[in-house]
Amino acid sequence: MSDSDSLRTITDFAEKLAREAGELIRHERDNNTLRTDYKQQTELVTHADVMADEFITAAIRKRFPQHRILSEETAPDLSQAEELETPLWIVDPIDGTVNYAYGHPQVAVSIAYAEQGRVQAGVVHAPFPGETFRATKGERATLNGETIRHSGATVPRDSLFATGFPYHKDDLEPLVRRLDAMIHRCRDLRRIGSAALDICWVACGRLDIYYENVSPWDFAAARLIALEAGATAGHFGDVPDGYPADLYGRDILISAPAVWEPVRQILRSASGYD
């Protein structure tokens, strides 16, 4: 089996898990009373988050017992991203938990697979609209099997952007400065509530720009999908030496290629980096 065939098999497995987890969380919301709690005092979590996380991670451990897992609910140790010797799975069982709890459709299961700190396969499945985004490194990105491509936006003024805000509200001033700069220089803002879907929407041209501070499980799969759709992905801040850029979520910026550098400059200036 060639490397590409092997990675395609990995992507197929990730898609199968994402779809099955999607059915689980859909069933829980449609048929059972959601039980909610908070982690770190401010971040909402539901029983379905934990159920889906346990389902996905158990299936990965059964098939690939030597692989490591970084998952939001059951294995959120971010130091896993820095250990590069063993393949790593990055899992978000429900990206958009607040949307999920409020009955909104913008909810996704995100599963990525990385080797040596580089993401090689990614699947983002949105169970309520029935949309599955996927990509294997070096191959095209697809939505429900059809090739997708970025919007081709050429200037920030005509670009639609998305971002998000943290649950912790202690240090919002830098984020508000960035938002103020972007809203004055771009077409408009969309606040979707799922980083994985924000990025996939850049990949398929529904959005032109996405930026935010997020965790690896929020963006790892979607970032690869955007790259394989021809978008540009990077950071408007600096990535620490030795940390894999594919998994570093602070100051992330993903956009249509022509607007990436102008937007990077806008965000750097608003952040006081220049």
Number of helical regions = 7
CATH H level, superfamily name of the largest domain: Fructose-1,6-Bisphosphatase, subunit A, domain 1
Q: Distance N terminus to C terminus?
A: 49 Å
Strand content: 15-25%
CATH architecture of the largest domain: 2-Layer Sandwich
Give me the side-by-side strand order of the main sheet: 3-4-5-6-7-8-9
State the name of the first-level CATH class of the largest domain. Alpha Beta
Radius of gyration: 18 Å
Low-confidence stretches: none
Oligomer classification: single chain
Q: What is the count of distinct domains?
A: 2
Count the beta strands.
14
Using the alpha-carbon principal axes, give the shape: globular
Main sheet: strands, sense, barrel: 7 strands, mixed
Instruction: Give helix and strand order, one letter per element, not per position.
Output: HEEHEEHEEEEEEHEHEHEEH
Mean pLDDT over the residues: 93
The CATH topology of the largest domain is what?
Answer: Fructose-1,6-Bisphosphatase, Chain A, domain 1
Helical residue percent band: 25-40%
Structural class: alpha+beta
Which descriptors apply to this entry?
274 residues; alpha+beta; Fructose-1,6-Bisphosphatase, Chain A, domain 1; D-Maltodextrin-Binding Protein, domain 2; 2 domains; seven-stranded mixed β-sheet; five-stranded mixed β-sheet; 7 helices; globular
